[in-house]
Design a protein that fits this description.
Length: 190
């Protein structure tokens, strides 16, 4: 039997809560994956604004759900072993706080832990247009090995629905997490 993979998911108040929900739904269907999910206060607000789901629905999609103020949670310590963290969507505020090492909430602390333990950290940064501060923060993190997967749609797979666009993004995130998936929409060559 293969070992359970522990994935930390931080959800912040950038637009695009739908991406986090889709990732959580797909991970719930995959065997031997355990999700540790944190929603920031503004992520909870955007959940209300952008979707029809409640926080209870979200908790049902997670194996473990934490408050962003819970700095005593397991995932706030490097001694709690995980297989990596993804922040989806990542606000420019959270990107900035991670880039300068401010671990004053559970998402930025867990990201700081992920970096110091040299584990996989993936971000889905969402803002447009991007200013130089945003770009410099992302460049700094990228140089440290953080994988940036902004939610930029591809059209070579002829998406027809919003779900098609979201599927393609989630496929990229699962690929980065090293989780095999058959979501589709891959380039098959000409
Ligand atoms: C409806 C709405 C949409 C937002 N979209 C973005 C966004 O796409 N990118 C971003 O960086 N901030 C966005 N913000 C601002 C963040 O929510 C704000 O900077 C907040 O402090 C982020 O905190 P957090 O990272 O702890 O969630 C948005 C705010 C609201 C209310």
């Amino acid at each position: 039997m293969s070992q359970t993979r522990k994935i930390v998911i931080g959800v912040t108040g950038a637009s695009g809560t739908i991406y986090a929900i889709d990732l959580m739904k797909k991970l719930q269907e995959i065997a031997n994956v355990e999700t540790h999910v944190v929603f920031s206060a503004w992520a909870k607000k955007n959940l209300q604004l952008e979707t029809k789901l409640s926080l209870t629905d979200i908790k049902d999609l997670a194996d473990y759900f934490y408050s962003d103020s819970d700095l005593g949670a397991t995932i706030a310590s490097g001694s709690f072993l995980t297989d990596g963290m993804i922040i989806v969507p990542a606000s420019m505020k959270t990107v900035a706080s991670i880039a300068v090492g401010i671990g004053d909430n559970l998402i930025s602390r867990a990201a700081d832990v992920t970096l110091k333990e040299q584990r996989k950290l993936i971000m889905v940064p969402r803002e447009t247009p991007l200013n130089t501060i945003h770009l410099e923060n992302m460049t700094k993190l990228s140089r440290m090995g953080v994988q940036m997967i902004p939610p930029i749609p591809a059209f070579y797979n002829q998406p027809q629905t919003i779900q098609d666009l979201v599927d393609h993004q989630t496929m990229k995130e699962l690929d980065a997490l090293g989780i095999k998936n058959d979501i589709g929409g891959r380039w098959e060559g000409i």
